[in-house]
Amino acid sequence: MKILVTVKEVAEVEDEFEISGGDIAEQYLEYDLNEWDDYAVEEAVQISEEHDDVEVVTATIGPERAEETVRMALAKGADRAVRVWDDDVESASYLDVEAKAELLAAVVEEEDPDLVLTGVQASDESNGATGVTLAEKIGFEWAAVVNQLDLDIESGVATVHRELEGGVEELTEVESPAVLTIQSGINEPRYASLRGIRQAQSKPLDLKSLEDVGLDADVLESPLAQTDMYEPESEGDATVWSGDPEEEADQLAEFLRDKGVVEG
């Protein structure tokens, strides 16, 4: 059995930052594996540990910098990785959900997995649509927001709990090949061990261009564009006091008296 896990490198922004050229300046960004994808990787690795002959492959769309993030997924137990990137992808003005799903669908067609796991959403854009869009493109059955998974390897049927609106859960069966979008809390993602990190350096990580996966630059065209980025205006004022605890307490008491919250 082969499980393909889509993973994404996401940016984390420092508390204080500047916007430059319509985006957050690079020096204020740090990169890491998307939280929801971490749960998807863990779920795939646990399945591979419980059953024989299960291969876990990760797939990502990202620049060379993203290989460090992908290596962390390999260090946690994935067997190999695929990274899609070339000059055309890099020069694309905006990669929307449709384009990302097209790129990942091409990898799925090449890898021919029995099961595809994705995170429910990514913490940077929070679209929550790539997994189900991918399923539609490749014609797989799918289930979204999965917070419990029981996979029967022999029959290829996955029994899943889905988290719905209002705290309601749905129990359903999905027959492979299928796409499942994984919710946080389904498991406890492991930390990469030193041994795993060392082993990850020798695991295959293949770079694929658009041509390698049978696509051309037309798939990158999008009706969407990022036109601006700005910090929203504050809706209230904050008062900051300084001094030792006694001085700050006096200042707070005076402030509350001025506001009529307490009497003098």
Quick overview of this protein structure:
This protein is of the alpha/beta class. The protein has seven helices and 13 strands.
Task: Throw out a few tags for this protein.
264 residues, 9-stranded mixed β-sheet, globular, 7 helices, alpha/beta, Rossmann fold, 13 strands
State the CATH topology. Answer: Rossmann fold
SS-based class: alpha/beta
Largest sheet: 9 strands, mixed
Give the proportion of residues in helices: 25-40%
Describe the protein.
This protein is an alpha/beta fold. It has one domain (about 1-220): Rossmann fold, CATH 3.40.50. Helices cover about 30% and strands about 25% of the residues. Helix 2 (about 65-75) packs across helix 6 (about 195-200). The mean pLDDT is about 90.
